[in-house]
Structures are given as structure tokens and as C-alpha cells.
């Protein structure tokens, strides 16, 4: 860490951003407002972040010539999501300053390294074993139990995981296991899922209010903050958040995910270095956004103390909900709508998000539920299942 201490990026310098979509666009806008020239690196010239930037480089993350060219134009580079390979960061660090570093990516992109890290800081994670072939799987399933989840060691884009609900499912894993080493872990049935976002500066740390998430098939539907939770559980979440931030060689915003079971047992789901979709809820919940705090961290100035302002709920807007959303647009005075600029070839079904702000989370949730916009989708999905 000492090599990164007191490394300041002053206004007028050039910040490079690796990423795309709404998050990269917002960070670009905040950096430009703070006086920086911004370059964006991504694979789609039509992406909104590319259009917002002062300059852009279109290229794949495997294109070393393009990466070198881009890095040499920047005084510092930040990545906005965790899908950048650690080797890419190691490579561009030869040509520019990358405040976040590569170490956290190395830890979270290898599931065994990640689990060793969690063991080191004494946190509760799902029981797991390493499996190489079908024999391993048959021998291990009794100790893990059903249901179990089979995941590749290397985390990344396009990866596949498989749920094993019963013994007859194991034979289906034969082809699955041909691609390398896997982790077999217990599936943790849980009543609640939480997200803690931490900003780690070069000298200081700030923690955002805890969020509760609602997901459907791993797709985010809702984020609400500050989460309503038992004080003892909140204290343990904060302890873990602080321990993670202290142990990781990292500068910037990161997210730690948690599961809470019906019996009150807390499990750590994982760590995500970078900005998140659910982090947009802080545009209303607190007096500083995830983008402002991330920028302060990576350019080397003190983080802003985070003060809660009001409870808020963020609901994701799907394209097929737009007719209903237009009705709410006309009716709601406490709803703030954000619509994402889509590239012509975008496969995303997400149109944007809405922030619902007020005095009490329960009342806000009731307001959301009464519109039936998201209830209809849930009922439809349940029928399909």
C-alpha cells in the first residue's frame, strides 16, 4: 500500500475508465464536473459512456496494443466493475497508475483464494469442497448436502454454475466438469439478502448505510436503504465490512454481500470491487453518491463523511414495464426516474431505475406495491415457474 499513499490526481489531469453502460457514464460525468479529462475504454463505440467521454478507445480487454495506447494517454485508470481480468490491470499498470490495484480482483476471481481470504478474517461462508471429476462429486455430496451449487474455480464472464437438488442430477454434471476444477458448496436458503458498500480511500474509510436487496433468479429487482435489521446482526455486518476493507489492498468503492437465514445466521456471499447498480439508491439515501466517493478515493483526496438523508427504495425498470411506468411518471411527486441510454445492439431488458424517497421504508414499500407494476411481473414469473 505504501507505494500508493499520497498519490494525488489533480484537476486538469486525465482519468481513464474501463467499463460501459450507465455506471461508467455517471462516473465519467462526475469526473468531468470535478475538472478531469476523461477517456473511456470499451468494446462498443455506441455506448453512452463512450459518447460522454472526452476521448474513447474501442477495443477488447484482450487487445494489448489498444490497452497500452489507452493507458499511456491516462494519468490514472479505474475499472467500474469486477469483470476485468486481474492480468489486464497488471499489464496496464506498466503504463499508468491504477489506484484500485489488481490484488482484490485476483482474490475474488479465484473462488479458492476468495474462500481462503474469508477464512483468514474469520467470517461465515457456505460450506464447500473442491471437486475435479464425477468421483469427487459423488464422494463430496454427502458432506455438503442437497441442494448444492457447482461453480467453476475461476469467476468470470460467461461462466456457468449448476444446482444439484438430488443424486440423479449428479450424472448431468459429467460434461460440466470437463472444463477444470470446481467448487461444490451448500446452497444457503435465506430470508434476506443485504449489501454493504464501503469506500476505502488512500488514508481513510467510509461506510454507506446498509441495503436490503430483492432479487429474482440473480437479477436485481429492488434495493432499499437503510435496511431494517437487528442491531446485533448490523454490528456483525459492520465488523466484517471493516475487516474486509482493512485486509484488502484496494482503493475505491467495494461491495460486500450477505445472506441472513430464517434462524438468524449470517453468511458472507462475496465481495465485488467497483461500483454497483444497487449503489444508485444512495443518490437519495445519503448526501454523497457512490460515484463521488469512489472518485475522491481514487484521486487521493479525503473521503466525505456519509450522512443519511432519508429512506429510499430503488426499483429496477424493465422494458416491458414502460407503459405502467409512464402512468406513475404522471402521478408520483416523490419518484425520481432514470432511463438508461441503450446501444442499438443491446440485449439488456433493463430500461432504467426509479428512486422512491420519503420518511418511512414501510410506507414507501406500500406505495410501490400498490402500483402493481412490480407485483404483476412477480406473479407472471411465478406462473412460468
Automatic annotation (TrEMBL):
Pathway: Purine metabolism. PANTHER family: PHOSPHORIBOSYLAMINOIMIDAZOLE CARBOXYLASE (PTHR11609:SF5), PURINE BIOSYNTHESIS PROTEIN 6/7, PUR6/7 (PTHR11609). Pfam families: ATP-grasp, RS_preATP-grasp-like. Its cofactor is Mn(2+); Mg(2+). The keyword ATP-binding applies. GO terms for molecular function: ATP binding; metal ion binding. PROSITE patterns: ATP_GRASP. Keywords: ATP-binding, Manganese, Nucleotide-binding, Purine biosynthesis. GO terms for biological process: purine nucleotide biosynthetic process. Coiled coil: none annotated. GO terms for cellular component: cytosol. The keyword Manganese applies. This is Phosphoribosylaminoimidazole carboxylase ATPase subunit. Residues 115-299 form the ATP-grasp domain.
